[in-house]
């Protein structure tokens, strides 16, 4: 997959893209990331990328010309490549959106700055708008890095074979079960006996139950869509009953 990123701050991307998994993905030729400075597409002496809004009001607006020229140059002849604007007004990024984007062989990401971009950028070149959640960032760059990271790990071969086969828990609709490694006792805290038992079926059952418990405690909204077996639904019923009793005893 090829990802082109249009930004006023290309240097912000150095760390995340040149370390660890994304670095290896690029070395393996599974992913190529190309950074483009929007300022290189300005035509005036001062290389201006933003201006005051028509109609007044505070803040600055990213100008239409450099952005549209940058997209047209980077897109080349390919009219079908998705052009995604990172903006607080976009649809919220989820694992489902990541999967959807991972199906393309190219993406163009535009990182907004200031109060936003001239509306005509949307009209002319943007095909999709994404927000990474309901909190305020200083620009679209960090959001673009989140999108790249989540999409890249879905490309076949980017993660080890062991991981690719296995569905991860967010994809399965549950939070993760608790993990332990050596030593078996640390400051009096012990590893649950079942994990040391060697009984793989018992381990699997314990992990599913702990995942359900944790999801019930922290993200009950996820349980509405999680696929659970009959026995697991029964276990969830027990958790809910325990909680109802606790509330009755300690109102
Ligand atoms: C005064 C209204 N603000 C909207 C909440 C203006 C504004 C704040 C921050 C406009 C742009 C920004 C910069 N943020 C992004 O460009 C951004 C973003 C975000 O702030 N949160 C979550 N996802 C994203 S994607 C791009």
- Biggest beta sheet attributes: 5 strands, parallel
**Span between N and C termini?**
55 Å
CATH superfamily of the largest domain: SPOUT methyltransferase, trefoil knot domain
Mean pLDDT: 95
| Computed Rg | 24 Å
Reported by name, the CATH topology of the largest domain is Alpha/beta knot
By secondary-structure content and strand pairing, the structural class works out as alpha/beta
Query: Counting H and I runs of at least 4 residues, what is the number of helices?
Result: 11
CATH A-level architecture of the largest domain: 3-Layer(aba) Sandwich
Supply the number of structural domains. Answer: 2
Shape type: elongated
Written overview of the protein:
The chain is an alpha/beta fold and 251 residues long. The chain has two domains: 2-152, 3-Layer(aba) Sandwich (Alpha/beta knot), CATH 3.40.1280.10; 185-249, Trp Operon Repressor, Chain A, CATH 1.10.1270.20. The protein is built from eleven helices and ten strands. The chain has helices at residues 14-17, 20-27, 64-75, 95-102, 119-124, 141-152, 161-165, 169-172, 193-196, 200-218, 230-249; strands at residues 2-7, 32-37, 50-51, 61-62, 83-92, 106-111, 116-117, 128-131, 185-186, 189-190. A five-stranded parallel sheet has the order 2-1-6-5-8. A three-stranded mixed sheet has the order 3-4-7. A two-stranded antiparallel sheet has the order 9-10. Helix 4 (95-102) links the parallel strand 5 (83-92) and strand 6 (106-111). The termini are far apart. The relative contact order is 0.12. The chain binds ligand 9D3. Ligand 9D3 binds next to strand 5.
